[in-house]
Design goal:
- The protein is mainly alpha-helical.
- It has 12 helices and no strands.
- The protein has helices at about 1-15, 15-40, 45, 50-55, 60-90, 95-115, 115-125, 135-155, 155-160, 165-180, 195-230, 235.
- α5 packs antiparallel against α6, α5 packs parallel to α11 (about 195-230) and α7 (about 115-125) packs across α8.
- The model has no long low-confidence stretch (mean pLDDT about 85).
Amino acid sequence: MKLLDRLGPQMRAHAWRLPVVYAPALALVALIGYVDTQTRFPASYFFRDAASTVEEPFFLGGMSNLGVVLFFAAGAICLFAAAILRRLEPKGQQAMFFMSVGVLTVIMSLDDLLQFHEEVVSEVLLGNRNVIGPIDGELLVFAFYISVLLFILVRWNGLIRTTDYLFLLVSLAFFILGMSADRGLIGGSAVKDKEVRVLIEDGCKFLGITGWLHYFARTARQQVLAVLRPAPNADDAA
């Protein structure tokens, strides 16, 4: 009975939040239903796992999916740390640092999940045409990520230097190696085996994501604990 007694006040207090929570999801489900009836793409293409849809082994794309999960985890940790630090240290620079990294990480996670740089920008928007000279859509997206990351590294250079940034540098090195392999700058025609090229490119990206998650989870924990930990007063020091 106590459980039911508490349900009434919750319904009155949060009734307006239910549409806010479920309206976007319902709209997305309705959109998929419309696509199912109006195009050649069935609803199962959107809802079911890719491996079961094409009737392949369950581990199809497993490493790619795991990388996306780790990437989203890093973004969630950064955004959560930003929310906490903004409340605890309104004038501090830590909150904006984690907010910027969190937003960038979520965008890169969505890109990795939906293949935005390969499919949407390069093929759908640009029709596989180069933007300027040798610059194609994929390189344009990479340039955007690098520009934002460089801004973050320069803007919060002082804060980053107080952290264990070795993990960040190693992570960035793996990302650079992965992007270089993707553009054919590493291996290229010298590596004939397609699967070896996949191991180099996607393996480096996965290692970069792993380091990215470790660094920002570690740094978020350190920064939040530093704010929560009371500073020693003069009497204690004496």
